[in-house]
């Protein structure tokens, strides 16, 4: 059994999708990021960085794993699934996982901050992060023109990137004109485990939210930024 500490963020959903794909038994503990639960001593003992997601593997002497990418690798290696066993295949998955961890996630996260959360609209910063997100999306689109999935078969690389790219509208980054990326978004998003994973837990904001609800969500996120809580997600 796995204890899964999370919230409704792309990084949290990366792990919930993987847990559902692997059909692993888990108990979900949803942390209230606005209340700062991720900074409480009991959780910092699990993740010294005080951010979600994190897991504790009870079957492995209560072994704790933090950082969403590290959790995906751990789960894949423990089960022998969602990552090839040969060195080259494994390297391909790791390359595209690192692409998300070092590029897609940070750039989309900054786009969210400047486009959605900051009350002052700093257009040069918005343009900078929108431009970089678009560039990264084009990298994905070009690669997916020649490949069904990012690294051979469906893998944790697809899970990691999809969980972020699916939120492109919230970041203000369109995917029109990128047919291969759109095809892949629909392909991964159609998997039953993926559909369930993004409801574990459900987000308080979906892509069809009204303008008022979107603004309320942004105000709450802004408060966390102003109080130094950030989003509390890796």
TrEMBL record:
InterPro entries: Glutathione-S-Trfase_C-like, Glutathione-S-Trfase_C_sf, Glutathione_S-Trfase, Glutathione_S-Trfase_N, GST_C, Thioredoxin-like_sf
Annotated GST C-terminal domain residues: 86-209
Keyword Transferase on entry: yes
UniProt entry keywords in alphabetical sequence: Transferase
Pfam families the record matches: GST_C, GST_N_2
Span of domain GST N-terminal: 1-83
GO MF terms held by the record: transferase activity
PANTHER family from the UniProt entry: DISULFIDE-BOND OXIDOREDUCTASE YGHU (PTHR44051:SF22), GLUTATHIONE S-TRANSFERASE-RELATED (PTHR44051)
Record's protein name: Glutathione S-transferase
């Amino acid at each position: 059994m796995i204890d899964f500490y999370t919230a409704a963020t792309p990084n949290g959903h990366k792990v919930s999708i993987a847990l559902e794909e692997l059909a692993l038994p888990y108990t979900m503990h949803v942390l209230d990021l606005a209340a700062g639960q991720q900074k409480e001593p009991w959780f910092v003992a699990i993740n010294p960085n005080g951010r979600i997601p994190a897991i504790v593997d009870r079957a492995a002497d209560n072994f704790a794993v933090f950082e969403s990418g590290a959790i995906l690798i751990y789960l894949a290696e423990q089960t022998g699934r969602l990552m090839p066993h040969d060195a080259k295949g494994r390297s391909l998955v790791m390359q595209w996982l690192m692409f998300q961890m070092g590029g897609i996630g940070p750039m989309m996260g900054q786009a969210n901050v400047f486009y959605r959360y900051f009350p002052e609209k700093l257009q040069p910063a918005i343009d900078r992060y929108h431009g970089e997100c678009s560039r990264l999306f084009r990298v994905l689109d070009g690669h997916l023109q020649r490949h069904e999935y990012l690294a051979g078969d469906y893998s944790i690389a697809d899970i990691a990137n999809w969980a972020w790219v699916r939120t492109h509208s919230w970041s203000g980054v369109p995917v029109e004109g990128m047919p291969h990326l759109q095809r892949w978004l629909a392909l991964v998003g159609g998997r039953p485990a993926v559909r369930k994973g993004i409801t574990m837990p459900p987000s308080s904001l979906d892509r069809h939210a009204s303008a008022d609800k979107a603004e309320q969500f942004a105000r709450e996120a802004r408060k966390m930024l102003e109080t130094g809580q950030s989003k509390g997600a890796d």
